[in-house]
Structures are given as C-alpha cells and as structure tokens.
Automatic annotation (TrEMBL):
This is Calpain catalytic domain-containing protein. Residues 1-63 form the Calpain catalytic domain. Transmembrane segments: none annotated. One of its GO terms (cellular component) is cytoplasm. The active site is at residue 7. One of its GO terms (molecular function) is calcium-dependent cysteine-type endopeptidase activity.
Length: 277
C-alpha cells in the first residue's frame, strides 16, 4: 500500500523507498500515477514507512468560503489565570475551534514530549455580563483538542469567549503557550485577551454544573441545598468543584489517600486561587 503526501513547503520530498528516484517504480506505474508531472513537494511513501515517521493524522473539513483566524496566548499558571480568546460574531456562524499546546520536551539525552492537560470551553457573554456555556470538550493529554459548534448573533454583535482549560498548570511556575485556530462560515473578529481567576472559576463551575456528577453535601430547611460538589472525570483526571450557595464561608475536605486504583497522584488544590462570587 502506498500513501501520497505533499510537503507543506512544496520543495523537499521523501528519499526512501518509493521516493521519486526509487528503483521500485516501473515505467507503467510512473505513468499511471503521473509521478513525473507532480510538483516537487509531492511524493509517495510505503504504508510501513508512513506509520514509522508520522505520529498522527488530522482530517480537515473543507467548507466553501470558510474563513480562518489564529490567536496565541498563555495557559493558566501560578503567575496568573492565563488568557482566553474573545470572538465577536456579526451573524449566525458555524465555527470549528482547535486548541494546540506549544511543543515541550524534557531535558537530557532521552528527552521526551511533556504534555499537559488541555480542553476547550466556549462561553457566550450575556447582556448582564454573565457567561453561559455554549460548547466544551473533555480535557485530554494531547497536542491538540477540537470542538465544532454554532454561534448565534443577538443584536448588532455578540461576544463569545474561548477559554483554554488547563488545570495541571495552575500551581506551575513554568507557563505554557497555546494557539487557537478558528474556522468560521461567517466573518468574525478575534483577539487574545487576559482573563482573571474569577472568570476562570466561573467557566469551570459552568462546565461542572452542566456536565459533572452532582452530590449535595449540606441542606437548609429554608434555603434548600446550600453546599454541593460536582465531579468531572476525563482522560486527564478528576476535577472536583464545590458550589457554596450561602453567605457563609465553608470548608470541604477531600480524602484522596485511597481510591479504586490506590492513592491519587498529582493532586492540585486551587484553594484561594479559583473563587467565584
């Protein structure tokens, strides 16, 4: 089996088996596949070599008149809550959002990629300043994550916020960069914008309330349930969010010493860091 590829720079090609100068080509096969009439950057590889040299394949959806925008920013860390991408919408549009984390490797002769958890949360800004969840992904330990959704337009312009979710870096003093790519069926305006701990906390709470497992901890005869916890579980681990609906300070203790697979590892507390009023 052969795979046809093209180098993005349009010049250099594959020089191994089934490369353009490979003796494996017969005259009939070269004519049938039009090897000699292709651009210089187009080449063929055997299936085994393709699996050896490429780690992943991304399927791109081609939509007529689709527009593309890209923004860069910082993931949350011990220094601040990181950045988000603000999107202004002037007409109802279909969008596809891809979040990439910067390449990062450990040091030493046996350096390996060190990936952190990433996810996407798309929020709509309401007229009263609140944010409502429109779409989201689970967190993954991967180079990128993707979500597709539809953005509505209310009035002249509607504002949305694309929030990169990364909880494993909240206490880290080594910030990581991200890149957000957006493909839209209608014109939009994008800009990278700083976020704060309260906005990030509200974003995580909205995700937990909509998709997490809810457990009431404390109820009041008149006020109802005043303290609840939500549990989000995905490939990147478990996130526990506490919601206090009273006017009093409360403390929630979590025993992570024993679990189904033994003691928890990499436990990070956001106490005092992510608080939403």
């Amino acid at each position: 089996m052969l795979v046809k590829l093209r180098n993005p720079n349009g010049h250099a090609g594959w020089r191994g088996a089934w490369g353009r100068a490979s003796p494996r080509w017969t005259y009939e096969l070269r004519e049938q596949l039009k090897i000699d009439s292709e651009d210089a950057g187009v080449f063929w590889m055997g299936w085994d070599d393709f699996l050896r040299f490429f780690a992943e394949v991304t399927v791109c959806r081609l939509v007529p008149h689709m527009m593309e925008g890209r923004e860069f920013g910082w993931l949350p860390s011990a220094f601040n809550a990181g950045q988000a991408v603000a999107v202004d919408v002037y007409a109802r549009t279909q969008i596809e959002v891809t979040l990439h984390q910067e390449p990062h490797r450990s040091r030493g002769a046996d350096a390996t990629p060190t990936l952190v958890d990433i996810g996407i949360l798309v929020l709509k800004e309401e007229s009263d300043g609140r944010y409502v969840r429109v779409a989201s992904t689970e967190r993954v330990i991967d180079h990128l994550v993707h979500v597709a959704t539809e953005l509505e337009q209310d009035g002249y312009v509607s504002r949305y916020l694309i929030v990169p979710l990364c909880l494993g870096q909240l206490r880290s003093d080594a910030p990581r960069k991200f890149r957000v790519s957006v493909h839209s069926s209608q014109p939009i305006a994008m800009t990278s914008t700083p976020t704060d701990a309260a906005t990030l906390a509200r974003a995580i709470l909205s995700l937990a309330v909509d998709t997490g497992k809810r457990t009431p901890l404390l109820s009041h005869p008149l006020l109802g349930e005043v303290l609840c916890i939500y549990q989000l579980e995905d490939e990147a681990g478990i996130c526990i969010v506490a919601e206090n609906n009273s006017h009093f300070a409360m403390r929630v203790e979590v025993d992570a010493s024993e679990g189904a697979n033994g003691p928890s590892e990499g436990f990070i507390s956001t106490r005092g860091l992510l608080v939403s009023h």
